[in-house]
């Protein structure tokens, strides 16, 4: 088996596990923390090739912070809270990962109201290779 195939198979396995977790928790999401974790899992699932599951490196390439809400059509919209002006491609990657998310399904009315009114704030932690982890699901950062 080639190294590329093994990497692809591992990515699919992680994606399948995340999808199962998302489906299992989405129907019961009540708290803001649960909704945020479900959102992060959805990003991981839909952007699997750009995500890493390692401990973030000590000095990150970039940190992008977005406020994410649902609009009236239940489409995701993101507003940049913090970015790295010298690395606009990292901001674009974070925004693109939100833009390609499908509309959420199975959320409670309370969770939908929260996403429409307040939204959530999430940080994308970028490695030197351009892959990211979301702060909500990221492992502890490695020491320097």
* Tally of discrete structural domains: 1
The coarse silhouette is globular
| Helix content estimate | 40-55%
Distance between the termini: 36 Å
* Number of helices, where a helix is a run of at least 4 consecutive DSSP H or I residues: 4
Written overview of the protein:
The protein is an alpha+beta fold and 144 residues long. The protein has one domain. It has helices at residues 3-26, 32-46, 88-99, 109-117, and strands at 62-70, 76-82, 120-126, 132-134. A four-stranded antiparallel sheet has the order 2-1-3-4, sandwiched between helices. A hairpin with a 5-residue loop joins β3 and β4. α1 runs antiparallel to α2 (32-46). It starts with a helix and ends in a 10-residue tail after the last strand.
């Amino acid at each position: 088996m080639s190294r590329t195939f093994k990497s692809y198979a591992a990515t699919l396995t992680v994606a399948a596990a995340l999808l199962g977790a998302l489906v299992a928790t989405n129907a019961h999401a009540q708290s803001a923390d649960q909704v945020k974790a479900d959102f992060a899992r959805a990003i991981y699932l839909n952007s699997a090739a750009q995500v890493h599951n390692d401990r973030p490196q000590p000095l990150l390439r970039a940190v992008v912070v977005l406020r994410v809400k649902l609009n009236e059509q239940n489409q995701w919209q993101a507003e940049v809270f913090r970015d790295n002006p010298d690395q606009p491609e990292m901001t674009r990657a974070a925004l693109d990962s939100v833009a390609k998310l499908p509309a959420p399904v199975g959320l409670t009315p309370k969770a939908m109201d929260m996403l429409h009114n307040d939204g959530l704030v999430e940080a994308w932690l970028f490695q030197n290779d351009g892959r990211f982890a979301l702060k909500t699901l990221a492992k502890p950062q490695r020491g320097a």
